[in-house]
Amino acid sequence: MKPALLIIDMINDFQFNHGEILSEKTIKLTKPILSLKQFFYKNGDPIIYINDHYNLWRADLDKIIAYCLNRKSENIIRQMLPHENDYFLIKPKHSAFYGTALNTLLRQLNVDSLVLTGIAGNICVLFTANDAYMREYSLYVPVDCTASNSDEDNQYALTMMEKVLKANIQPSYEFSTK
Question: What is the set of domains in the chain, with CATH numbers?
């Protein structure tokens, strides 16, 4: 299997209802996601950031970072910055597939399995997982690499991804020891 790591909406301004709560939960995701990134670098597998465009409508990482930096986001963004060999796509809606070149990129890279990480687990990660499943990608959504405003909503989304979309939801260290 040829995997790709998708990092969804981790460059975020958290300027929305319950943004403070989600930023506090998101900081806990950085360490396991960074560990997965190192594993993917070591194996030469692709890492793809997919992010909201914040009405800038430019796939310009520097502009999106500048827009998103604030006291709630700074620590997360500084840790999660993409490296120069990482891919970066913007998305117009919740799913990383909707209105983006993601599927074309994945096919060109010969990817057949996805490791989904990021926020919010019950919205953008779940919708991306659904679209990936319909495109017949194998799914891995580590339980320690996604968060939502509500822990209950996040667990429900993980359960749906596991039961309906056949996703493996074991912790991230299970993936990196394979």
Answer: 3-176 (3.40.50.850)
pLDDT in tens, 77-98: 999 999 999 999 999 999 999 9
| 37/63 Cα distance (integer angstroms) | 23
Measured between alpha carbons, how far is 155 from 148 in angstroms, rounded to an integer? 9
Length of the chain: 178
- How many whole angstroms separate alpha carbon 10 and alpha carbon 75? 11
What is the pTM (predicted TM-score) of this model? 0.96
3-state secondary structure the chain: CCEEEEEECCCCCCCCCCHHHHHHHHHCCHHHHHHHHHHHHHHCCCEEEEEECCCCCCCCHHHHHHHHCCCCCHHHHHHHCCCCCCEEEEECCCCCCCCCCHHHHHHHCCCCEEEEEEECHHHHHHHHHHHHHHCCCEEECCHHHEECCCHHHHHHHHHHHHHCCCCECCCHHHHHCC
Whether the Cβ atoms of residue 46 and residue 87 lie closer than 8 Å to each other: yes
Strand partners, 33: none
pLDDT tens track for 24-68:
999 999 999 999 999 999 999 999 999 998 888 878 899 999 999
Question: Average pLDDT of 108-117?
Answer: 98
* Tokens describing residue 157: 């989304």
